[in-house]
Design brief:
Elements: H1 4-15, E1 28-29, E2 38-39, E3 50-51, E4 59-60, E5 95-97, E6 105-107, H2 108-118, H3 131-139, E7 189-191, E8 199-201
Antiparallel strand pairs: 1-2, 3-4, 5-6, 7-8
């Protein structure tokens, strides 16, 4: 049984088309007042949309997403500070920078992987600033982990009670909340097949019964 408000959310989502893939069932709406763009969470990277994984979990379309205000790079070295491959010569959705040192540049997917790997030790890979850097990354849609750094723990022998147990969908439709999980059915919790640090209810990410795995949009 689903409460009336939840049923209404599901019915409304079924009527909305994702502006990225053009399929129905888009449950995420840009939170900018007056913008009616809706999209699926898995489609967000392709549409260069941003979801903030803190507070009220706000989501933005490509036009209204937060932008970084950084000075031109002093070193003029257009390489990612993490993978050392080439990055764009300007800040964009795919190319981000450190607000503290103003010099570090990195791919969005590289800094996202570092954030999940570093956990509570996450900081700028160049100047090592943490507080200002972490807040900027959160605002720009990078998902952080509250776990100890991966290099300080053995994932294979980690206790089972450390398993991620929260639905990280931008809009969680479960009437019992984000922490609720069932062994089977629409409220079964799926973990990202790549990082296991992000999860979703089967229903909240429109996963069918035939789905064998799920990967977070940040991986």
């Amino acid at each position: 049984f689903l409460p009336g408000d939840t049923r209404h959310v599901i019915r409304e989502a079924a009527k909305k088309s994702c502006f990225i893939c053009c399929k129905m069932g888009a449950s995420i709406t840009c939170c900018k007042t007056g913008c009616d763009r809706t999209f699926h969470l898995p489609c967000a990277p392709d549409g260069e949309c941003v979801t903030q994984y803190f507070g009220v979990y706000r989501s933005f379309c490509w036009e209204h997403r937060p932008q970084q205000a950084l000075q031109p790079r002093p070193s003029q070295d257009n390489t990612c500070s993490i993978c050392l491959d080439t990055v764009e010569d300007k800040i964009s959705y795919k190319t981000m920078g450190c607000p503290a040192c103003q010099d570090a540049r990195f791919h969005r997917h590289c800094i996202q992987r570092l954030a999940l790997h570093a956990g509570i030790a996450f900081r700028c890979p160049c100047c090592l600033n943490q507080e200002h850097f972490m807040m900027e990354m959160l605002t720009m849609g990078i998902r952080l982990s509250k776990r100890p750094p991966a290099w300080e723990s053995d994932q294979e022998v980690a206790p089972s009670d450390q398993r991620h147990g929260r639905c990280d969908a931008a809009t969680c439709l479960c009437p019992a909340g984000r922490e609720h999980a069932e062994a089977d059915g629409p409220w079964q919790m799926w973990l990202c097949s790549s990082c296991a640090a992000e999860g979703t209810h089967q229903h909240c990410s429109s996963l069918g019964n035939s789905t064998c795995s799920w990967e977070a949009n940040t991986c």
